[in-house]
Design a protein that fits this description.
Layout: E1 2-9, E2 13-19, E3 25-32, H1 37-51, E4 57-64, H2 68-75, E5 79-80, H3 83-94, E6 100-104, E7 109-115, E8 118-125, H4 133-143, H5 150-155, H6 168-181, H7 185-203, E9 214-217, H8 224-234, E10 238-239, H9 247-258, E11 274-280, E12 289-295, E13 298-303, H10 309-327
Length: 328
């Protein structure tokens, strides 16, 4: 059976799926990146390989997410796509009539507006962590409540506490202040969920026509408290998908399947030693910083250069540095 591998490598989590020819997920993995995207990808590959049905042959690979270029080079991906395209394609495969995609991830959030299956507008928030998964996790530790239980607490609230949500620092200080005043945890958490939605709509969704069908996805979509706040504040039905946290890598896998290029993927890549090095070119006033990927100590690829000479100059510098180290 031929299959297609899609990776979504983010700053907080690394996800991957394998799709069959019918775009059905036959294997998936979701792990924390922990500041080591290469290590996270190797761990995910081990899980994926163990889940695959016997006789499955992966013939195309796609990557998306913040580390898509790096991991795309390492995996020999046929397709490396931005997150907007990947999320849109993935969501359309499950919800063909979708007109608005609300996505909140670990450290960023985005909104995608579609009309008749085509992306017509989008916005991203990558400057502030307020309202993201990382923000929620930090507050769960502050309140000593597992983040997985936040939704249940929020739904038990009788009167949500008003929490400032425009900035992480203000939100945290406001939360502490309200807790010291005696607000119970249910109301505090419901207030946090509301503040996340208000922050999202006032920043990411500002000026956008949010029309149904609406699909909410990303890791935060698993929080039923935030989902309830979206439905209440928008006064519209908002859908979630069981695979909502995987939509980026589903889209990457679909794009890989559609690209037409085929070659068998070898899981032995997880046993290869990869390293990254930043090298300043120095060949002109631009002084580009070239990101180089080394495979078992040998130059594999690089990017970040503004001209063709940058890669070769970075490669020579790495080789010279290696010679100096050996001589010493």
């Amino acid at each position: 059976m031929q299959a297609y591998l899609g990776f979504d490598i983010g700053s907080i989590s690394t996800k991957a799926v394998v799709l069959d020819d019918g775009e059905k997920v036959i294997a998936s993995s979701y792990l924390w990146t922990e500041g080591d995207p290469i290590g996270a990808v190797k761990r995910v590959l081990r899980q994926i390989e163990a889940e695959l049905p016997p006789g499955t042959e992966i013939v195309a690979v796609g990557t998306t997410g913040s580390a898509r270029e790096l991991i795309g080079r390492i995996l020999g991906a046929q397709i490396v796509k931005n997150e907007i395209t990947a999320h849109a394609i993935g969501t359309l495969s499950r919800h063909p009539e979708v007109r608005t995609i609300l996505e909140i991830g670990g450290q960023d959030s985005k909104i995608i507006i579609l009309r008749e299956g085509v992306v017509v507008d989008y916005a991203m928030n990558t400057l502030c962590a307020a309202g993201t998964g990382a923000f929620l996790m930090a507050q769960s530790k502050r309140l000593n409540i597992p983040v997985e239980e936040f939704g249940a607490y929020a739904l038990r609230s009788k009167s949500a506490t008003k929490i400032a949500g425009r900035c992480t620092v203000f939100a945290e200080s406001d939360l502490v202040h309200k807790a010291q005043m005696g607000h119970n945890k249910e109301d505090l958490i419901a207030g946090l969920c509301n503040s996340i939605v208000h922050n999202y709509l006032n920043n990411v969704g500002k000026g956008k026509r949010i029309e149904g069908p609406i699909v909410f996805q990303g890791g935060v979509s698993k929080n039923i408290g935030v989902l309830h706040s979206f439905r209440k504040i928008l006064n519209q039905d908002v859908s979630i998908d069981p695979e909502g946290h995987l939509m980026g890598c589903i889209g990457a896998a679909i794009l890989a399947a559609r690209c037409g290029a085929r070659h068998e993927f070898n899981f032995n890549v997880q046993d290869v030693e990869f390293q990254t090095r930043g090298v300043e070119c120095g060949g002109c006033p631009n002084n580009c910083e070239v990101i180089c990927v080394l495979r078992n100590g040998e130059f594999l690829d690089g990017w970040g250069n503004r001209c063709g000479a940058g890669i070769e100059r970075a490669k020579r510098k790495l080789t010279q540095a290696e010679v100096i180290v050996k001589n010493e």
